Amino acid sequence: MTESANRALLPAGLRDMLPPDAEFEASVVHSLMSMFARHGYDRVKPPLIEFEESLLDGAGGGTSSQTFRVMDPMSQKMMGLRADMTPQVARIAATRLGTQPRPLRLSYAGQVLRVKGTQLRPERQFGQAGIELIGSDEARADAEVLVMTAEALAEMGVPGVSADLALPTLVPAVFAAYGISGETAERLRAALDHKDSATVAALGGQAAPLLQALIAAAGPAARALSELAALDLPPAAARERDRLAQVVGLVAADLPSLTLTVDPVENRGFEYHTGLSFTLFARNMGAELGRGGRYQGGGGEPATGATLFMDSVLAALPGPKPARRLFVPAGTPRAWAQAFRVQGWVTVSGLVPAADSKIEAKRQGCGHCLGPDGIVEVE
Amino acid sequence: MTESANRALLPAGLRDMLPPDAEFEASVVHSLMSMFARHGYDRVKPPLIEFEESLLDGAGGGTSSQTFRVMDPMSQKMMGLRADMTPQVARIAATRLGTQPRPLRLSYAGQVLRVKGTQLRPERQFGQAGIELIGSDEARADAEVLVMTAEALAEMGVPGVSADLALPTLVPAVFAAYGISGETAERLRAALDHKDSATVAALGGQAAPLLQALIAAAGPAARALSELAALDLPPAAARERDRLAQVVGLVAADLPSLTLTVDPVENRGFEYHTGLSFTLFARNMGAELGRGGRYQGGGGEPATGATLFMDSVLAALPGPKPARRLFVPAGTPRAWAQAFRVQGWVTVSGLVPAADSKIEAKRQGCGHCLGPDGIVEVE
């Protein structure tokens, strides 16, 4: 069967992961989760499917159009297949773990499904692995989440990790201070999204110079912070800027190797974020590896978190090292193979006596074969 | 919120796994899969959802009534949420990996969803982890799969692992040889399922003594084999018996600690199996930990495999060891915490200065606290 015929077996955007990719993904998730665990993030595992009303509550509402629904024959209520794990973890934090001491550090990893892929991410199923830090409004909490996810990626081997910082509540604070609302606000928002300074000048009224300065400030964090510091921002916006400066300082101290950029007018994809947010990238890769930021947990509790997208993370990593496969002819004492497995070999047992063990080893994809005098290389 | 209110948040049979259970499950799956990998089983990862027609093809047909369906808006075709991963792995072996050399050893782990729970397994979502050995009809292949899964369970710490062996094609071979079919066959099958020797005597005709002897032979493998050896079985059934004896011999040699029982008339749950099959149990636990056996792969290829059910496996294991949590007060140099993590500590960072670090450590569930003079215990 040809590869195109094979692909046709599955719906668009869904795929079989084959060796060695499936094992590689699992090992990367395992390493990430172990790293999170060592920093006190305790793993939770929500179900793949739950009632629509709880799944799409609050922050989950953003994924409504991306969520597959099925009827629950037991309750006759609609259920949704999760398109994002973050709202589920927020639900757990607010309910089952509502009485646990704060700050609450949680981690999670699992698969999500989406009704349609996007141009940037055509996959309809992919793995998420992430953390949530719930119950703290401290800048140190924002910094911890960013540093940990960026460091985890770097330790995995992702080259040139960078974070693009955004303040999705900054522009709304400026709009509010200048009385910009309704259609004007919408058109300005669109112009800002496209960094369209001319339209901002035409529509921005008294706020135009400030908004143009915000567009122009985008860039490396040090320069962006100094340009932002020079601006006369309304109080709510100024607080956002000061928090940004504080977090950048903490992150730079903890992880000086991390490239930080700031885009003060960025908003897309952060519709449910309530403060400092970020997107993680790797050098020479367009797709984002993860994103995170501050949001409002259950009962208005302050929270921040980050999610890594495993498909992008895997694409950014050098591939797995090939396993050392040792062919063990039929009849070899069991303890011998065991001894070699302990040494790190993958052993492949012959099920029938082979006329030539080396030929059989090669046929079964083994670089080495166990002979009467020990391991021999199969060229 | 009370635990019952919390439970009401989720549909029946679905649940949130909390700390430390979620981490424990993931670590057990990781260990199992690593063990399978060291024996040359390469991991594959099929999607959670695929076209109904491929998901429910062949051996997958048995899960049709247990499968949630959704419409694919892109192809307008029906898709199913997998209720079992085995048919997916068989599909991959027959298509994408159809040209790989045989025997093909594959492993998999993932979540499955079922429309309704059963009395024995009320969960509607649970994890599977398993192996498939495809392209060999050897008794050694049957033995390898059974030994590996049983040994993996024992190495994880499951107490008293036992395997109940079945030959789902034995009774059909007897029926065929004695010309038993139609309603008589169905009624006899039901009587055999309930070990109802009296009904078997009444309905079995000339085959009755043999069928009664098969019922009576159930028990420890050594005794069952000797009773079966004394029976005058029709040729096809005799071949099954001889294969059973061969596999029991291989398994007993490789894993003498494994308790083996045989039930020659057992059939339930093995409707799609074509030869030696087995169910794995732990001492003092009713629920099965896994099951496996011989089946027909794509294109009639001989295959055998086994699946472990993670919910039962976890229930059979002693719980996880609690982590050593070390509270690291705010302002502690980052390298210190890192040094302790390398030593195996879980570090929990303070986000704000604490008046009394030991009190704060205790509040955050840490048994130890990092002070100016090193680690102090928090009682």
From TrEMBL, chains A, B:
Pathway annotation from the record: Amino-acid biosynthesis; L-histidine biosynthesis; L-histidine from 5-phospho-alpha-D-ribose 1-diphosphate: step 1/9
PROSITE patterns per record: AA_TRNA_LIGASE_II
Residues that bind L-histidine: 84-86, 114, 128, 132, 268
Intracellular or extracellular location(s): Cytoplasm
Listed GO CC annotations: cytoplasm
Superkingdom classification of source: Bacteria
Keywords, in A-Z order: Amino-acid biosynthesis, Cytoplasm, Glycosyltransferase, Histidine biosynthesis, Transferase
Domain Aminoacyl-transfer RNA synthetases class-II family profile: 28-293
A Pfam family: tRNA-synt_His
Sample GO molecular function, one term: glycosyltransferase activity
Any one Gene Ontology BP term: histidyl-tRNA aminoacylation
Quaternary data: Homodimer.
Function: Required for the first step of histidine biosynthesis. May allow the feedback regulation of ATP phosphoribosyltransferase activity by histidine.
Remarks, miscellaneous: This function is generally fulfilled by the C-terminal part of HisG, which is missing in some bacteria such as this one.
Annotated family: Belongs to the class-II aminoacyl-tRNA synthetase family. HisZ subfamily.
Protein name: ATP phosphoribosyltransferase regulatory subunit
